[in-house]
Amino acid sequence: MIASSFGxxxxxxxxxxxxxxxxxxxxxxxxxxxxxxxxxxxxxxAGIASTGMPRPSAFAFLLxxxxxxxxxxxxxxxxxxxxxxxxxxxxxxxxxxxxRLGSGCTSGHGVCGMSRLSxxxxxxxxxxxxxxxxxxxxxxxxxxx
Length: 145
Prior knowledge:
- With about 140 residues, the chain is mostly helical.
- The chain has one domain.
- The chain has helices at about 1-5, 10-30, 40-45, 55-75, 85-100, 105-115, 120-145.
- The protein starts with a helix and ends with a helix.
């Protein structure tokens, strides 16, 4: 009761989710010698990248991301707003362009790279955060008019 009134329940779910992401990244690195960079794994599954984990493993990893979230989270939230297909397609293209431009994504740089103290990943993660802050700020300014 107290946890839900102060938002601690969602914080605990976030903490548990972060721990599971870290565990999965560590297992992939230690077990297969691979970095759990989702953009690289997605590129491998799509056939864009010719190196990396085997394609069936890449598909299994990508399939496990939403399925794991649905299983652990008990399904979609009741207030989930699912955007239209065109919005998702445009957002996906923008994110895909950014991950290629930045040579990786938040999982590769933010989770795996920073844990290995990679200077390039630390810099990239700082830029990800700065871009996110700038985007939210801009959207709040534009949305308030």
